[in-house]
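tool_call: predict_structure(chain=1)
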Amino acid sequence: MTTIACLGLGRMGAPMAGRLLAAGHQVHVWDRTPDRAAALVTAGARAAPTPARAARGAAVVITMLTDAGAVAGVLFGPDGAAAALAPGTCLVQMSTIGPDEVRGLARRLPGAVLVDAPVAGSVAEAAAGELVILAGGTAEAIGQAGPVLAALGTVRRCGGLGAGAALKLVLNTALVTAVAALADALAVAAATGVDRAAALDALAAGPLGGAVGRAAATGASFPVALARKDLDLARRQLGGAAAPLAAPVVQAAALVLADVPDQSADLAVLVTKE
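tool_result:
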C-alpha cells in the first residue's frame, strides 16, 4: 500500500482517485471545490483542506488539473504542495500542459522526483483503469511511479521529461482537427443530400473512423474550452504569432472552437449541434 495525494478531483481526477482506492492504496484528496471529495471520502479517502496537507507524508503526489496556471498555483501558491514534498517524493504531473512547462516545474522542484504523465483516454477509461499513460522522465522515476500508475492503465514510456506532454499535444491536435474535419464532411453531406446516418456509416469505415467513434462516445468528456487550450499549446510550440501559417488546419480548428457558444460542452458538439 502506498500513500498517494491526488490534487484535482474533476472529470478525470475523481475516477482516477477512485481507482487508486480500489487498488488498496491510502489516498489523500484535495480539490478547490471540497464537495467533490465527498464520494471518495465515503469510499475511504482522506480529504485535506489544502494541497500541502494532502501532500504531507505522501510517497506519490498526482496533479490532474486544468492547465499550467492551475498546476503552478496548487504546487507553489499559498499552502501549495511543493513545500510539503519530502526529498525523493514522486510528483506525477498528469495534467495536459506543454513540455516546456513540465521542464520548468522540474527546475522548481529540485528535491522531488518528477514524472511527466498525461493520459490518452477519457472519463470511461479513467473509471475502468484503462488509460494510456504517456510517461516522460528518467527510467528510475517512471519505475518509482510504476506500481501506482498500474492501477490507472498502461504506461507508455515516451522519453525524457516533457516527452509525455509533447506526445499528448500530438494526440490532442489529431483528435480536435479530425472532429472538426468530420463536422465539415457532414456539412458537405447535408449540402449534397446524403443522409446523415449513411454518411456517418461510410465515414466510420474510412480515415475519419476514429473521429466518428469519438463523436458518438458516451463515456467521454473533453470540454471545448480545454480543447482550445490544448490547440493553443500546440500553436505555441509551432511558433505562435511568429509563425501563423505553420499549421493552417490547426489554426482553422482553433477558430471553429472559438465560435462554439457553450465552451463547457464536449468536443462532440462540433458534430452533434444542429
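agent: The chain is about 50% helix and 15% strand. Proceeding to next step.
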